[in-house]
Amino acid sequence: MEEQKKNQDQADSRPQGRREIAFSELYEWIESAVMAVIFVILLFTFVARTSVVSGSSMIDTLHGGDMLLISRLGFSAEQGDIVVVTKPYEDNKPIIKRVIATEGQRVDIDFVEGVVYVNGEALDEPYTHTPTNKRYDMEFPVTVPQGHVFVMGDNRNGSYDSRATEIGFVDTRYVLGKVYLRIFPLGAAGTVD
C-alpha cells in the first residue's frame, strides 16, 4: 500500500517537474538573449560601429553601398587614415574621407599639376582616382589648427571636402572613428587602406 502511494505521488509530480524544467530552460534562453543584446549594444556604442558609403568621393578605394566597420577605441588621427566624420553640414550626415594632414601641418595644393604638398613635400598618393585639380573656396597654403584634421576624398575632382570652407578643418571631436574593415559586399571584404 505504501509502495502504491509513493508511485502515485511520483506520478502526480512529473507534469509539474516537466513544467518547471521547461520554464527554467525558457528563462535561460531569455537571459542569454538579453545578455547578447546588451553585449552588442555596448560593442557598437563603445568599441566599433558600422557606416555605409554614400556617393563617389572615395572611388577607387571605396564605393557607394560599401559597409564599413569603424572604431574610435585608442584612435588618434594620422595622415593617410580613412575616417568617418560628422562635421555639421548638410543635415549632419557622416562623410568618409582620408586624413591628409593633422594639427600643425601645412597644406598646399598645386591645382595645375594636381599635386598635394604637406610641409613642403609632395604626397605619394597611389590611392587617388584623379589628380587634385578641382579648387573650392579655401585659400592655400594653410596650416591645420590644433585639434583638427584636413580631409579629402580619394576621387579628388568628385569630392567635397576640406578644400571648401563649409567643411574646412574638421575638429577631431567630430571624427566618429577610423575605417578598419569593409564588411560588405562580401567579395570585397577586408582591410581598407
Characterise this structure:
The radius of gyration is 28 Å and the shape is elongated. The protein has one helix at residues 2-47; strands at 48-52, 67-71, 82-85, 95-102, 106-110, 115-118, 121-122, 142-143, 148-152, 170-171, 175-184, 190-191. Strands 1, 2, 3, 4, 9, 10, 11 and 12 form an eight-stranded antiparallel β-sheet that branches. The protein has two domains: 1-48; 53-191, Umud Fragment, subunit A. The mean pLDDT is 87. Helix content is 24%, strand content 28%.
Record the SSE blueprint.
Elements: H1 2-47, E1 48-52, E2 67-71, E3 82-85, E4 95-102, E5 106-110, E6 115-118, E7 121-122, E8 142-143, E9 148-152, E10 170-171, E11 175-184, E12 190-191
Antiparallel strand pairs: 1-2, 2-11, 3-4, 3-11, 4-9, 5-6, 5-8, 6-7, 9-10, 11-12
Short descriptors:
Umud Fragment, subunit A; four-stranded antiparallel β-sheet; alpha+beta; 1 helix; 193 residues; eight-stranded antiparallel β-sheet; 2 domains
What would CATH call the homologous superfamily of the largest domain?
Umud Fragment, subunit A
The coarse overall form would be: elongated
Low-confidence stretches: none
Count of strand segments: 12
CATH architecture of the largest domain: Ribbon
| Beta-strand share of residues | 25-35%
| CATH first level of the largest domain | Mainly Beta
Largest sheet: 8 strands, antiparallel
